[in-house]
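Fold this sequence, please.
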Amino acid sequence: MGETAFPVSARAQATRFSSVAAVVAAAERLRAQGVDVIDLGAGEPDFATPEHIKAAAKRALDENFTKYTAASGILALREAICARAAEDFGARYDPAQCTVTVGGKQVIFNAVLALINPGDEVLLEQPCWVSFPEIVNFAEGRLVPVATEETDFHLTAEAVRRAITPRSKLLILNSPSNPTGRVIAPAEFSKIVEVAVEAGLWVISDECYVQLVYPPGAPFSAAALPEELRARTLIAGSLSKTYAMTGWRVGFALGPREWVGEVIKIQSQSTSNVTSIAQKAAVAALTGPQQAVGEMLAEYRRRRDYLVPALNEIPGIVCGEPEGAFYAFPDVRGLTRACGFENSKQLADALLNDYGVVLTAGSAFGGEGFLRLSYATSLGALEEGVARIRRMHLDRTS
């Protein structure tokens, strides 16, 4: 009997594999072949998880804290999340307004599914994180991109106002931004949410990188907004970047009880609870010493301060200075043309296959003509990566 073709659902056919995950997989294949790879593609801190957080996980194992928990997470962790929001941003949330999720991505996925019906419009700045459009498509919503290139990738309240239509239902914000590293100033952030709420929209604020803001800027959260704006705003948070805990998969939602309740309901039928051991580690992260956060931020700033000028010295590259996160998003249209490529994907592929430099084409984020480079890696790796990009330019233009 012959093999039967698998009948892929329409929803699965419409979902694209993550371009960032594809780059990571390609890098792994090259490493397995013995290629010396410089990885500027991963959106992942290269620091170890702080010792006191790991110690809490070990204690949880020793104490046999290895059973199911409530789908919403243990009370101690939800209280710690609320307490951190209060300490950092003066916000008052109670544990009923909080749930723990398998990373920040699950908050967004569940929150969108809980709100969006087929045909509902979702406003999203462009360029944006690769998963936002795919989640909206999965929910059968209609994506409305809000272009930001003309404002140097800073989203504005006026741009949001112009994009709203009678079918608009949700606005997704991400500050600091992946991929651009841009930070929305607090006053503008408040105006943006005001515009959305006045038009009857709901808001998701993705705050995965909220603590990674470079001086003279400072962290700002939707948690600091007035109550009337927070009543329609859900925060998607994560411990991954702040505490170098990407593999622990701990995220959280803070927001209106009804919306959070629907997020929990969907989670109860999908992943259930976050790993019990990781939850204990997360309590230690949020309630313990915060010194490591500042140390990591200072190192990211040192790397940024090397990378941006170094990229700007390469002919055909123009790179603005990111205000947060750990990504540079240079304009490489001049380099692309000079090297004989048609688009940023061809440029990125050549850097990967011919020079062993892993990075992501801007087109993956809706920013054709740009590249995303992560500087969550050593200064030595950044120097070698820049040298290889410069070498490609020389090889193809001399």
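The first helix runs from residue 10 to 14. The first strand starts at residue 38 and ends at 39.
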